[in-house]
Amino acid sequence: MSNINQIKKETMNLVIAGHVDHGKSTVIGRMLADTGSLPEGKLDQVKRNCEKNSKPFEYAFLIDALKDEQSQGITIDAARVFFKTEKRNYIILDAPGHIEFLKNMITGAARAECALLVIDAEEGVQENSRRHGYMMSMLGIKQIAVIVNKMDLVDYSQERFENIKKEYSEFLKDIDVKPDEFIPVSAFKGDNIAIRSANMTWYKGVTVLEMLDLFKKEKHTLEQDFRMPFQDVYKFTKFGDSRRVVVGTPTSGKLEIGDEVIFYPSGKKSKVKTIEEFNVEDRKQIKANNHAAFSLEEQIYITRGEMACKVSEKNPNLSTRLMASIFWLGHDPMILKKEYYIKLGTAKVTVRIEKIVKTIDASDLSAKEKTQIERHDVAQCVLKLTKPMAYDIASKLAITSRFVIVDDYEIRGGGIIQEALEDSAKWVRDKVVVRDFKWQKSMISSAKRSEKYNQRPTLVIITGEKDSGKKPLAKALENRLFEDGKIVYFLGIGNVLYGVDADIKNKEEDPKEHIRRLAEIAYIMMDSGAILIVTATMLDQEDLEIIKATVESDKIEVVWMGESVKTDINVDTRILNKEDIEENVGLLKSILEDKGIIFKPW
């Protein structure tokens, strides 16, 4: 074995894209075969299957993973395949070329560090060739080589190659993309894939494999700020093992034992106690793109969708408003006011368009003013989220700026975040950052209190119109939970206005400061492990955003008293009949049981 093979190689994520039938799969199959990256006997097996079925052998069959791909003759999934050169290992994301499957390409390209764009020498530049180029630009992929394939079908014509190079270069220049190289190849014949072609002596550049090894590994593996979308907590109980292990896959940076980590958007902090790996002892460090598992010195309650970062490094952006470029792929247009989901890392948040700044047709770069985003349009939009999400902007850290838009359980589009915009609760979050930094922690963790009290700390907000029965219901609920042995407290908004807020001379002068102080009281009460029931008249969504900036949103239950919600607030439960207090108390208690806030008896 060579010394190179003994050294642990770096890994690079590569996406290969192009119009349907332009030969992406054949390029990949040839690279796998020419680098010896196939399982032993795989090439012969595929060739025998082709002979058995009386069909000509194609290198594309080496990676066609889905049964209907060979019958339809198109690649319909973003397949992950692996191959290696002397320099590094590659994870290849084979992005579909058919226009119906562009959404899979966006998913595949989201983690790519470099790209190969494949164009058929005979067919030339197609509409999807331009769309793929635009998406590479939009996703922030800077290292790109253009592969002009099937040169054997045009008699290895230099003139044909130069014409395609000129046409496509002009298009890419308009979207600020400068390819590292144009490479004429015949993937089927093997010309200029791994071996320099004797049929194109006029070409003096590198082969495809040489080009890949010339691409530079993105510095995010070690040098950029640590980012890890939090996936889950694994618990171990066998043989007295009480470990709680945080798991996820870092997208950038590194993490070591003793580093202080902070999770956004909750702002919870702890130090790395151990780094865990199956059948490996004394691991000291976690690096980007490798599955990570670590335990914390202080157990904290975190939920899927948080982003783990290092306290000592630059924190991500955190807001409910952002400027983004979106590539839309849904059959139905993306419209104003409709709610969708935005997924970034493990976070999934409800989102809607606040404003469409401009739209662009990605195939010809024509710009238009529209009130909705049509299929295959690229649009610059202001997006409004229902709760804060941690992210970076594309110019600073591309991998954690990339997202997809989901509608009706399917990916309908994708894009990048270009700018962080201020929202109405930013001033509150700024105060919370200082509060959390100065906060003196108790020796008793939140998890221990929950276990002791047999409940989860929760803020129950009962709002609605004046005289709608909020206070009688809140007091009755408090009494029922107290009789059940729960740690519970009722707090009316008046208790805050004429107590903690007594220093505010003009009560109408700063209404949002009243809400912030109420939220801080709730934070303290919940830190003690209590269930807090609050009543306030006609709270709106901006009020709720202020509270969510102070108190974890997954620990808030919003109840509206009245037949119809009279503000824009997002509620969890609506109480229609204010007269039957006992029935309403039973309903709310059942909801708290169903959500695991209090124990549900058998």
UniProtKB/TrEMBL annotation:
Coiled coil: none
Protein name: sulfate adenylyltransferase
PANTHER family the UniProt entry points to: TRANSLATION FACTOR
GO process terms (BP): sulfur compound metabolic process
Gene3D superfamilies with a match to the protein in the record: P-loop containing nucleotide triphosphate hydrolases (3.40.50.300), Translation factors (2.40.30.10)
E.C. number: 2.7.7.4
GO MF entries: ATP binding; GTP binding; GTPase activity; kinase activity; sulfate adenylyltransferase (ATP) activity
Pfam families the UniProt entry points to: APS_kinase, GTP-eEF1A_C, GTP_EFTU
Species this chain originates from: Muiribacterium halophilum
Keyword set, alphabetical order: ATP-binding, GTP-binding, Kinase, Nucleotide-binding, Nucleotidyltransferase, Transferase
Listed InterPro entries: APS_kinase_dom (IPR059117), CysN_GTP-bd (IPR041757), CysN_NoDQ_III (IPR044139), G_TR_CS (IPR031157), GTP-eEF1A_C (IPR054696), P-loop_NTPase (IPR027417), Small_GTP-bd (IPR005225), SO4_adenylTrfase_lsu (IPR011779)
PROSITE patterns given in the database record: G_TR_1 (PS00301), G_TR_2 (PS51722)
Source species, domain of life: Bacteria
Ranges of residues in domain Tr-type G: 9-223
